């Protein structure tokens, strides 16, 4: 019984995409609105999906404590789980199959390519294209047995008070840190404007891929990777009191990146055969022959 329960708790969402679909509902594409398209055209949202998202956040907000984040970082940032070539890593990531709708959904690699191609089409620097290609590689955490609530979802600082601008803030009452006398204060364990590098964010695919790539990409690309799910800041501006001037400067890049992640999904799969030579050169320019997980 307890095993069944823990499986349900590990995966309330039918697929990781449900989180992103919920993001689209919360933050609809301004261009589509301007063109008179409804957000629903991306996907139909029905009540059961919304309930699974709610359950997903209940778990996320209950279990993402300061100690949990420190413990997950100590484990996964050793990078002792696997070593693969970049292309094997994409194949590995693609084992994450969306079982809710296997016929119409694009696989992980296609979302990554659509993001990177949209960035390339707008003439941005090639390292930003590469950030687009890699930004969700951290989702392999699911393949290492991590529950969905520890891989995806909006991220937020731990070790200080949870903002009511975070989605479903009511679920934080279940989190033991909520009543901790230090962690429940505005600054918690941090100093005012200490800089985000000193702040622990809830554990997930952003922090993991940032550490994976941090020796290889320029700083703006690393900010995009590390904070692309930090909606409570880049959309809600709830944590300026922990950021320093440099963070604010760098968040211009995070803001630039977000629409490519959120609004580049398209039912037409990219032509990988045609694109492959460009991406092979791009990967070879910046990355080593193998990557550690
Ligand atoms: Fe992501
Ligand atoms: Fe993404």
Q: What's the Cα radius of gyration?
A: 19 Å
Strand tally is 2
Number of helical regions: 13
Beta strand %: under 5%
Computed structural class: mainly alpha
Q: What labels would you give this structure?
A:
single chain, mainly alpha, 293 residues, 2 strands, binds fe (ii) ion, globular
Fold topology:
Layout: H1 2-10, H2 17-26, H3 30-34, H4 47-63, H5 66-76, E1 83-85, H6 86-93, H7 108-121, H8 126-134, H9 205-213, H10 219-227, H11 231-234, H12 245-263, H13 272-286, E2 290-292
Antiparallel strand pairs: 1-2
The structure holds fe (ii) ion (FE2) (2 copies).
One fe (ii) ion binds next to loops.
What this model shows, in words?
The structure is a single chain. 47% of the residues lie in helices and 2% in strands. The chain contains 13 helices and 2 strands. It has one domain. It has 293 residues and is an all-alpha fold. The longest helix is centred in the last third of the chain and has 19 residues, at 245-263. The protein has a two-stranded antiparallel sheet with strand order 1-2. It starts with a helix and ends with a strand. It has helices at 2-10, 17-26, 30-34, 47-63, 66-76, 86-93, 108-121, 126-134, 205-213, 219-227, 231-234, 245-263, 272-286, and strands at residues 83-85, 290-292. The structure holds fe (ii) ion (2 copies). One fe (ii) ion binds at residues 135-136, 205, 228-229.
In short:
This protein has helices spanning 2-10, 17-26, 30-34, 47-63, 66-76, 86-93, 108-121, 126-134, 205-213, 219-227, 231-234, 245-263, 272-286; strands at 83-85, 290-292.
């Amino acid at each position: 019984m307890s095993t069944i329960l823990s499986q349900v708790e590990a995966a309330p969402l039918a697929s990781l995409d449900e989180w992103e679909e919920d993001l689209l509902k919360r933050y609809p594409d301004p261009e589509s609105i301007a063109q008179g398209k409804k957000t629903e055209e991306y996907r139909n949202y029905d009540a059961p999906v919304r309930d699974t998202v709610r359950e997903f956040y209940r778990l996320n907000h209950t279990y993402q404590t300061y100690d949990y984040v420190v413990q997950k970082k100590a484990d996964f940032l050793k990078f002792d789980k696997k070593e693969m070539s970049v292309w094997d890593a994409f194949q590995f990531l693609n084992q994450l199959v969306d079982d809710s709708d296997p016929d119409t959904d694009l696989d992980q690699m296609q979302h990554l390519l659509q993001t990177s191609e949209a960035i390339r089409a707008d003439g941005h620097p090639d390292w930003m294209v590469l950030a687009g290609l890699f930004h969700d590689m951290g989702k392999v955490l699911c393949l290492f047995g991590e529950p969905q609530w520890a891989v995806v979802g909006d991220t937020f600082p731990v070790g200080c008070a949870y903002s009511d601008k975070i989605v479903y803030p009511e679920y934080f009452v279940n989190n033991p840190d909520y009543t901790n006398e230090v962690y429940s204060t505005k600054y918690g364990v941090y100093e005012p404007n200490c800089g985000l590098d000193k702040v622990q964010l809830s554990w997930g695919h952003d922090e993991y891929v940032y550490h994976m790539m941090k020796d290889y990409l320029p700083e703006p690309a690393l900010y995009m990777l590390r904070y692309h799910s930090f909606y409570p800041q880049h959309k809600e501006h709830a944590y300026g009191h922990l950021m320093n001037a440099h963070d604010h400067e760098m968040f211009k890049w995070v803001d630039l990146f977000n629409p490519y992640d959120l609004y580049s999904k398209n039912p037409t799969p990219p032509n990988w055969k045609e694109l492959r030579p460009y991406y092979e050169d791009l990967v070879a320019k910046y990355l080593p022959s193998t990557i550690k997980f």
